[in-house]
Design goal:
The complex is a heterodimer of chains A (68) and B (138).
Chain A lengths: L1 E4 L2 E4 L6 H7 L8 E5 L2 E2 L15 E6 L2 E3 L1
Parallel strand pairs in A: 1-5
Antiparallel strand pairs in A: 1-2, 3-4, 3-5
Chain B lengths: L1 E4 L1 H14 L5 E8 L4 E10 L8 E3 L2 H13 L3 E9 L8 H5 L7 E6 L7 E8 L2 E9 L1
Parallel strand pairs in B: 1-3, 1-8, 5-6
Antiparallel strand pairs in B: 2-3, 2-5, 6-7, 7-8
The chains are: A mainly beta (68), B alpha/beta (138).
């Protein structure tokens, strides 16, 4: 199936989970990444079970912060 | 890597950073990575510092998502972030390095320590090491 990941169209296996996609995309430090699907944030607890669907739009958003 | 930022965008973040003092100000940068190796910032985003302090900043994830959506709609990609140091130099602090989780990002730091001479630098952070990138205001 085709989905959009970080602005790029990608072919992925049917029913891929968010965790599988994170691994496939080699996302750095995934523990600090929020994931949105169709502009809704997904709960981290659901990453292993949430299956993506054809046409889904996924964004990986890093926690961004710092200090002086 | 060489990074460019338009003068008007530089002035936009400078104005916002001054307005937000004494708190740190922050936001995102969007643009393109050109074939010639230059990272061109085409748009800057002024986001809320959720920490509201002079010592830390955290971006609001909902605002981040909105900004990224805007970038995608304009054919841009997220290139990193910017934040201000109201009273310290334009260099990556230990906290900045610890919280730089994306090695593909450029991290811009604007120092207002000398208000008459603000300093903006861009950094690449990887494996706990911060290196200065060439930055040109165009």
């Amino acid at each position: 199936m085709r989905i959009t990941v970080s602005g790029e169209n990608k072919e992925v296996k049917d029913g891929i989970t968010i965790s599988e996609l994170i691994e496939q995309e080699n996302v750095e430090t995934p523990e600090y990444v929020s994931v949105s699907v169709n502009e809704e944030f997904e709960q981290r607890a659901n990453f292993d079970t949430k299956q993506l669907k054809e046409g889904d739009v996924v964004e990986f958003l890093y926690f961004m912060g710092g200090g002086r | 890597m060489k990074v460019t930022i338009k003068k008007e965008d530089y002035e936009k973040i400078l104005g916002h950073a001054r307005k937000e003092r004494p708190d740190e100000a922050c936001g995102l940068i969007g643009g393109i990575d050109r074939d010639d190796g230059v990272r061109e910032i085409k748009k800057v985003y002024l986001l809320t510092n959720m920490d509201h302090t002079s010592e830390h900043f955290s971006l609001d994830p909902a605002e981040q998502l909105k900004a990224v959506k805007d970038m995608r709609s304009e054919g841009l990609k997220p290139l990193g972030n910017w934040h201000s140091h109201p009273e310290s130099p334009s260099r990556s602090s230990k906290e900045d390095i610890r919280l730089a989780f994306d090695s593909r990002a450029s991290y811009l730091i604007l120092s207002l320590m000398d208000d008459d001479n603000p300093v903006l630098n861009s950094f690449h952070v990887e494996n706990g090491i911060s290196s200065k990138e060439e930055l040109e205001i165009v």
